[in-house]
Design goal:
The structure is a homodimer of 293-residue chains.
Chain A: H1 3-13, E1 22-24, E2 27-35, H2 36-39, H3 46-63, E3 68-77, H4 82-98, E4 102-110, E5 115-123, E6 138-142, H5 147-156, H6 160-167, H7 173-179, E7 185-188, H8 193-204, E8 207-210, H9 219-224, H10 228-237, E9 244-248, H11 253-259, E10 264-271, E11 277-279, E12 282-283
Parallel strand pairs in A: 3-4, 8-11
Antiparallel strand pairs in A: 1-2, 2-5, 3-5, 6-9, 6-10, 7-9, 8-10, 11-12
Helix pairs in contact in A: 3-4, 3-7, 5-6
Chain lengths: 293, 293
Amino acid sequence: MDERTALRTLAAELPAAGDDAAVVDGLVVTTDMLHETTDFPTGTTRYTAGWRAVGASLSDVAAMGAPAVAAVAAYAAPEFDEDELSAFVRGARDVCDLVDAEYVGGDLDDHDEFTTATTAIGRTHDPVFRSGANPGDLLCVTGTFGRSAAALRYFERGDAERGNDLFQFEPRVAAGVELVDDATAMMDSSDGLARSVHQLAEASDCGFAVDSAAVPVDDAVDDVTDGENDYWESALHFGEDFELVFTLSESALERATSASPTPVTRIGRVTEGSAGITLDDGPLPDKGYTHSS
Amino acid sequence: MDERTALRTLAAELPAAGDDAAVVDGLVVTTDMLHETTDFPTGTTRYTAGWRAVGASLSDVAAMGAPAVAAVAAYAAPEFDEDELSAFVRGARDVCDLVDAEYVGGDLDDHDEFTTATTAIGRTHDPVFRSGANPGDLLCVTGTFGRSAAALRYFERGDAERGNDLFQFEPRVAAGVELVDDATAMMDSSDGLARSVHQLAEASDCGFAVDSAAVPVDDAVDDVTDGENDYWESALHFGEDFELVFTLSESALERATSASPTPVTRIGRVTEGSAGITLDDGPLPDKGYTHSS
């Protein structure tokens, strides 16, 4: 059973799960496990790892349109190096500070590989799900795409400073809170923009027409990619950029754009499901980042 | 740096941590990571693992005297076997049902060893901490001690059925909620009764006099241990029984005992810090379960 099948098994057993975060009794809750070989390229500092791991969970809270309350992390490593642990905690705390959440510690475990499991909690009685997109709505995103793909190239080149810098993203909690009233569907782009659009389509039972020229690609992608294929692979499919991908009615666009503290870009529109999911004149492949070891 | 030193480092950096669960904005939050080689003896079913992992976090919520709201788990394994994953989820859900919490799913990850990280959330504006014990108070516990030590023996003997049965404990959430108004200090006994008493003493700056004859030792311990040393080692030091260890004034004992749905036993009293921590006529060693691989 691969991970996507396994996730479907879990979702079938757990009606509260299946969105970016579970909603229970006015709370949104989400958890993620990351580990060294798959999630933290050589050169990633523990400060960045703490930031990024906790940030990934906070991004799921943001995707529900909920203010973040708190985050915790379990930290496992072959040995406890005080400097590494302190750096991890500082990174975790700094990303929480950025979104007005409290980092409240966690658990320690021995493990043969550096592994961390993070949980973030938000509070809302009116979350936005993946399932509300309507044909005619606009498809929008926050921020830019391809930062994490570019970061990986910098790590590969030995420029860890630039890699770490690009890896420290701002979870879009403040934007999510501003967008919650207008967004008809929303999620974060952790698995890549293309896959996110497919997931919104599946949850909302609709199609999408995406305009590649409108996709805001990070400048860093230009600096590190080689040719058009590489460029679009990084921008659309690599993922882990943790931007918000959402839909809203055309009449709400101006209000949403001016309310969001992060730039909002319209990149396409919602179509009938029968029209499929297109990028310009062709199909947009459902290809994205798949967690694997 | 060993785990206790590492935990102190974390606690120093994070004033909200350091008790059984962190308290933030009316919520209590706690996370734990467990893995196969150290926490799940051969013979432990995935159903029991799900129960126990989520139960351990719910027990921390109970120790704060808070009703439990929800729990999540991240599940990592070398491969995703559908039956194993379903069993884990059933165990997690059943232990949540037992304490009126909602199990809301989690994350999946590849890992070379079965690993799970669980988070439980409770809600209270009036938690009880480890730090409020006063000389003259009584020392009490819920339930019985030595179940997990006995379970390990059954697993070693190949009696997995009995081992799994003893490993499925009831988190004392309902008892914690009934005791919260009377308890002056409370924690759970995950690191063993002896270490718990030492931790209460450190947090409350007091001493304890424990009466061994009063300690409620589970019948299973009698069945599997060999001699008095083995018996007391299992009951006092092995840990992982997830009972509540708490203090209250003598005048509150009768009310607490009748209110708690789990039997409450008085096992000693709080003394001045200068009197140390004693078991009958001698010192009670600060020796307990230390997580190690």
